[in-house]
Amino acid sequence: MAEEGSVGIVETKYLTFAAPPNEMTLECGRTLGPITLAYETYGELNDARDNAILVVHALSGDAHAAGYHHPRDKHPGWWDIMIGAGRALDTRKYFIICSNIVGGCQGSTGPSSIDPRTGRPYGLSFPMVTIRDWVDTQKVLIDHLGITRLLCVMGGSTGGMQVLQWAVSYPDMVRLAIPIATTSRLSPQAIAFNEVGRMAIQSDPNWRDGDYYGKTLPRRGLAIARMIGHITYLSDRSMHQKFGRKLQDKSAYGYNFRTDFQVESYLRYKGDHFVNRFDANSYLYITKAMDYFDLTQANGNLEGAFAGVKAKFLIISFSSDWLFPTYMSKETASALRRAHAYVISTEIQTDYGHDAFLLESDQLSSLISNFLSQGMKQK
Amino acid sequence: MAEEGSVGIVETKYLTFAAPPNEMTLECGRTLGPITLAYETYGELNDARDNAILVVHALSGDAHAAGYHHPRDKHPGWWDIMIGAGRALDTRKYFIICSNIVGGCQGSTGPSSIDPRTGRPYGLSFPMVTIRDWVDTQKVLIDHLGITRLLCVMGGSTGGMQVLQWAVSYPDMVRLAIPIATTSRLSPQAIAFNEVGRMAIQSDPNWRDGDYYGKTLPRRGLAIARMIGHITYLSDRSMHQKFGRKLQDKSAYGYNFRTDFQVESYLRYKGDHFVNRFDANSYLYITKAMDYFDLTQANGNLEGAFAGVKAKFLIISFSSDWLFPTYMSKETASALRRAHAYVISTEIQTDYGHDAFLLESDQLSSLISNFLSQGMKQK
User: Fold this and answer.
1) Is B279 a catalytic residue?
2) What are the residue ranges of CATH 3.40.50.1820 in chain B?
3) Residue B360 to residues A89, B7, B82, B357: CA-CA distances in angstroms?
4) B300 to chain A: which residues are within 8 Å by CB?
């Protein structure tokens, strides 16, 4: 873990706010408080306080974007390839904040948190949170850190939705925005996959209407939901390259219902692994927040939604991403241009599908690094 | 139901064979018998016995391809748009046979059938069946009908796999072959979707290792499997056109976990409807037969598999089919050409995705009708 450029050992921090009677009113009309938000920071805020970058994460991500929590950790944070000395988000130049989301299960307030009114986990009594709510809570964190204007907000997938929402909700606070592999409104196909995943969780008898904390967890349901999601993150071609029709630990078909193919074994592993680190109710709340995301909702159309934005945009999509295909990024880019925003929109050729934003890529790194450098100069 | 060209009222017929001690040996090495195959026929076999077309169906299809079983039936057979007087499969000219598959639940022997050795349903003691086995049993049916050479074998999706297997297994019996929206070997992505569907069924506590007959059925698991499948049968664009982000019976988000979007409601309906007509164990067996389908398996490569084929091929794919994309049909066509087969390969431009083969299409109809007419002339 002593590799060059690593941010090294880091610690997750927590900000708690909106304590009663000052609860935050959510988009759904209900209130929530107190709210804890988990976050990490890398690098130093400069004296001008103008080098701060907010990184926001996707469905299953967390505040731990870079470095290691313990010297013996096997894996670094989820975007370690991008964050560190000499990396695209260069910690010698920038102050990087990665914020978790409300409704999750990685240190921020969510359905598995204790409801102070009852002393028991919220479960399904947790209010529905939206991407606008996530951004509103992150705004409290940015204020707390003494930052009035972010150099950049960036993130992929559901993170990209937060980026767009940041530029719309707080136009004066965002100089640069980098939404990656994302959309301005979730497609019916993506809603459909989310709904089937939720049904798998809700059909698990151990789910018990969300009241399973301290009891047997709805592991099977969550594993199935994750497996469905995982297929949508890969491309057909990458699955051909990675697995093809190769068999798992056998030389001939088993002619039974145990695992035959490597791709089955891989998905089962991904599903099983996920349930050890993720809460099923959080999966329900987060996918629902994604489903509800539609920037045309408030203004009738995208151009209207983007009317007040001031950020400069670098929009990135991946050629083999079929969950958030390039046409969605183009739709966002066109609407932003009609709203007179500065937009660079680019598609990276890759076989890795939607997950490409999490993988090592010189092209992705240099696009982001150049965009940040130029933005930093043009004050 | 008295519409022009309809074959009118039809009846499913049944052929039973391979009674002990003459059981059929399956590809997996196990034996099965007696075997009942459900089938229907439309039109008349001519004196030369050279006008017979075998239609084979996809995952959830059955022997009832055209016409009605009862005067009050609301819907005709699954390919009624194609079969009838003046239709692409013109019953004034051709004798059409539609055969069901072993392992299914629509009148043919399958896991829900009574095992004569025990007097109880087979359940998971039913042997694994493959697409080669399906074709071998259909061959018994064709022999029984006194047909030594079929004018054509045709079908879409899993039906198309049977078409390819027919041309390989019984080259002297197939003059024309029309595989539609299919592949010579199932892709890892399709295997992955099948595996998640199977996991949903097997995770339903009512599934009880397949021993649920006469008890509560694993409805939720089967519904989820069907919903996953259904998403893969539609295209992203057709879902935009059909549903978009339209809400179901409400004018604003519900901010709860009940159905918000029409696409969710549609999928739930499709899932619930399916469990009333389909057996969960059959879903397991049929998807496994699909997974195992790989014509390169026996011969090392596709060209070798097709070395002995004598049929002329019309291969059809659909531009928006992402489950069996056109590149798969092209792969089959190229290998057939290298094996010196006569091949017409064409992609139909459509937004309807994989399901397009089941939908009204002048282009599909005229392609098939012309190919059949020309083949019928060239004896």
Assistant:
1) no
2) 13-185+294-377
3) 54, 17, 8, 8
4) none
